[in-house]
Design goal:
The chain has 14 helices and two strands, in the order H-H-H-E-E-H-H-H-H-H-H-H-H-H-H-H. Keywords: DNA-binding, Repressor, Transcription, Transcription regulation.
Length: 304
Amino acid sequence: MTAPYARIVADIRQRIESGELPPGSRVPSTRRIIADYGVAMATASKALSALRQAGLVYPVPGVGTVVAAAGTVAPQRKAAASGTDDVVRAAIGIADADGLAGLSMRRIATDLGMATMSLYRHVASRDELVVRMLDTALGEYPLPADPPDGWRARTEVSARALWAACQRHPWLAHALSMTRPQASPNGMAHTEFVLAALDGHDLDLDTKMHVGVGVFVFVRGVAVNIEPELRAVQDSGMSDEDWMTAHKPSMQAVVDRRRFPHLAAAMADEIDMTLDSLFEFGLARLLDGLDTFLTPHAPSTMDR
């Protein structure tokens, strides 16, 4: 009897070979495989791993798993992990392509060509692995050793570095926690960076921590929308603009101008609103508010 994952592999292989899934196109994600074939996450992950090992597909960060071009060699897995860094990097690659939901110790082991239990020589648990992953991801965007002058410029540097890391790794915002902060040196560096930016202001530590964590919460709050948006594009095959164009008439039909006059006017206009524009607008307003709050506490108007 053919294993479920093998049937999925055969089906997707046939779609690739027939041209239904041409080179560069996205193959079904783990979520889509689960929904379409009625299988568990482990089976969906195993099917994608088998396709990658066969050189038919390869993961693209922020896009998903795509079909390799005919006659080319898709990026191949390593024969074996030589250390913890290999395990962490393999896990990041999987999460970049399929999110944390597609991450499992079995899938990492399969990609690295090693036994699942061997991974535990490098990390004690999946939770520890995720902490190492987020620390590595944040470390790709180091804070400057020579920061700019002024609390606002320094705080903005930290916020933009966090935003860039979350854009590069869409799963990162979901992995970061405010209420249960992880033991991540690179994450702690951001908090320290903002706290140091407030030196010289007449603020107690409690207030300074609320400022520092508040900036982090804002960035994370916008960034948690990155991954769902990417998955929606992958699952639907439609960009945000295409989706709005297709659904705008039905939404306008629901918006009663008498009940929602402002919203109706907004929908009738061409408003360019993206996660980037929301981040830029929100960050500027957040810093404006902090500027008003910090002005009475500032040692000098030059430090603003």
